[in-house]
Amino acid sequence: xxxxxxxxxxxxxxxxxxxxxxxxxxxxxxxxxxxxxxxxxxxxxxxxxxxxxxxxxxxxxxxxxxxxxxxxxxxxxxxxxxxxxxxxxxxxxxxxxxxxxxxxxxxxxxxxxxxxxxxxxxxxxxxxxxxxxxxxxxxxxxxxxxxxxxxxxxxxx
Length: 157
Fold this sequence. Notes:
Blueprint: E1 4-7, H1 8-37, H2 46-70, E2 72-75, E3 90-95, E4 101-107, E5 118-120, H3 124-129, E6 137-142, E7 145-155
Parallel strand pairs: 1-2, 4-5
Antiparallel strand pairs: 3-4, 3-7, 6-7
Helix pairs in contact: 1-2
């Protein structure tokens, strides 16, 4: 069974979603199915079929969340240090062409949100950064073409 690296906040977010789906969504869907069933003929009951499909989707997501949580390897970023980029690092990069500065935290696949400055450990940018040190120049192939970045800061927060 392959472990899934994630930060403590990513693990907590998955736990919260699982709890919500089990304690709020599941009972709500069961009630909707019961109400739709009370309307009579199930073969032509669109409400019933929609509720059953919603139940299937919810149960599938619950199973997915339980699997991810059981395989989670929570990494405490606060205990990490050094100038080498690895999982959990917050890296400040400067685009060598445009001088534009970017700050990315390298997180697990489930936690990635580019708008919030979090990129997946499996993203092209993160893969290029892993193992590099502060001051290194890194070339990354992005959808917009090859880009060169300089690592100006590695911090752990």
